[in-house]
Amino acid sequence: EQNGCEVVCQFCTDAARSFPDAVVAQRVPDEVFALLMQARVQVSERKICTEQERLFRERLAEMREELKKAAAVDQEVQKHRLHIAEELLTLKCPRCKLAFYDFDGCFALKCRSCACGFCAWCLCDCGDDAHAHVLRCPSSSHQRQYHGTWEQFIAAQRQRRETAVKEYMSPLSASVRSAVIGACRRDFDDLGLRIA
């Protein structure tokens, strides 16, 4: 095996120290020559198996790395999805972060938990009272009015959410952004958001 399954002269040290197969076949019995050929096949098979095992181990290592990268990307996508759902899509008090769901028509809201006054158009913290802000809020579709309809509130929140999500996702790579959009698709659809 160490001589490549060649019959070599033990006294020679140069490159021509191996005997050609024809010479060996003439000098040894057929059974011995057949054993030599069988040994060559076995050595060749072992080399092939060893190489295949090495390639298989390399491929497994590559697959593990790919899985780690995919898991890392998946974790990143889920991190972004959670942030979008909790921070951008959920209606909540800008001060204490308590979620709210009710809207009674007045765009000057007051948090039940911390008494923060905030604007239902833009969700801006206005201190104790949001009435002055609501009259001049740049997000308002009815400037100089405190009250509006449920449809106006929903439209304002749709616009606010779309803008916030697009701004949040703008620095993401195209592949991560696409994966995040896919992960959030149901949430976006439920809220009527057009995020592409």
Uncertain runs: none
Shape: rod-shaped
Main β-sheet description: 2 strands, antiparallel
- Across the major sheet, the strand order is 1-2
Roughly how many Å is the radius of gyration? Answer: 37 Å
Strand content: under 5%
Q: State the helical fraction.
A: 55-70%
Tally of DSSP β-strands: 2
Q: Please give the alpha-carbon distance between the first and last residues.
A: 63 Å
SSE order, one letter for each helix or strand? HHEEHHH
Would you tell me the overall average pLDDT?
90
Description:
The protein has five helices and two strands, in the order ααββααα. The protein has helices at 21-27, 30-89, 131-136, 150-169, 174-191, and strands at 108-110, 117-119. The chain has a two-stranded antiparallel sheet with strand order 1-2. The two termini are 63 Å apart. Helix content is 57%, strand content 3%. The chain is mostly helical and 196 residues long. The mean pLDDT is 90. A hairpin with a 6-residue loop joins strand 1 (108-110) and strand 2 (117-119). It is rod-shaped and about 110 Å long. Helix 2 crosses helix 5.
